[in-house]
Give the backbone structure.
Amino acid sequence: MHIHLINLGCARNQVDSEIMTGRLKQAGHRITNDPEKAETIIINTCCFIEDAADESIDTILAAAAYKETGRCQRLIVAGCLPERYREDVQQALPEADFFLGTGAYDRIVAAVDGTPEAPLKCLLPHPDTLPPQTVDTPRALPQGPMAYLKISEGCDRHCTFCIIPRLRGHQKSRPMADILQEARAMAAAGIKELVLVGQETTRYGHDRQDGGPQLADLLTELSAIDEALWIRFMYGHPESLSDAILETVASRPNLCAYFDIPIQHANIEILRRMGRPDDPQHIHTLVKRIRTRMPAAALRTTVIVGFPGETEAHFAELQEFIDAIAFDHLGVFTYSDAEDLASHRLEGHVPAEIARERRDILMAQQRRISEARMERYLGQTVDVLLEECPEPGLYLGRTMFQAPEVDGLTYVRPRESQPALAVGQFVRTRITDTLEYDLVGEPE
Ligand code: SF4
């Protein structure tokens, strides 16, 4: 059978989609990029905020049209949307033939084949019952030189705005030996950068009671696989980003000095309403520690504006904090309300228009900060991993200080007299220009 799979959402979903693709290929199905030619279309959905849920629904409806215009006979909706909305989504989307929750990714072949294992219209077992990914789990690797590596699933925290623990269950760390085996196989297959993902990567191993390996241990082992292999971790937490992790990153050149630490807000009252344990002074101290130990390090964070109870004064405090820290990369979300969130019951909901205004103000502020932070690379020579060649003589890549998909890019233009380059190659690049979020350079 020809299958077309559409992945939406975050890097963790991307890994789930690659595993579903691997399982389907192993079962003899063919994957096609053309939805017209597919007998089955799968949409791996996202719904962490309202916009993401809307995008998922629009994508499902657009895919349903191939039942009329293409060969599609079976439309499968997988992932977070059916997990969150269960019966409601089944009733709202009669176009879909099958629903597969986050605890049932391993049964994708049965869902496609319609075998007796999946006789019903949906499979929604609890996410904690999903057998953990192992090195033997089939997975279709991405085309480019970068791959995500999931080191844990689920989250044990209770941020009041977040639905993830309900959709993905408790934190379950993969055994270190298993992760290392997968990492070695990916490096042998030509992957040049591994990006570790999980709901809270800096808490890797904390769910095991046996005092086993934690993120610093895992990073040490991963960095020894190949000194040319970049290792980066995303989705950290300021509370669990330990000194041991910082020291490990500082001591190994192939561990990216890049810290993704979503803070969500900088006012203590709002942080408490969010159910976050952090305190702004601790975040200041942490950032100072990172920059003192690794002056070249890049910092990324995300914040939510318009959270229930956020006043003009709270927002002004957040603005001051963002100015004072000068993060290299910043993502700003407006608060997304839903009845199944603990934050829904809080007093003082902020009108959506005000939240949007605050987001735009903060993004304009960050544009200036980012531009100034980018200028520090001017004239420097840095390694760039080439990921695309959109036209002859132009390559798109990233430095260690730019994460895939969420940060800017580095444009590399070799001079005519220079040898040809190839996607997947690291190139020593002299930065000749800087833009608001991107860098421009030429090979040394
Ligand atoms: S730590 Fe992250 S994934 Fe966990 S509940 Fe908070 S926001 Fe959600």
About this structure: The two ends are 49 Å apart (CA to CA). The chain has a mean pLDDT of 95.
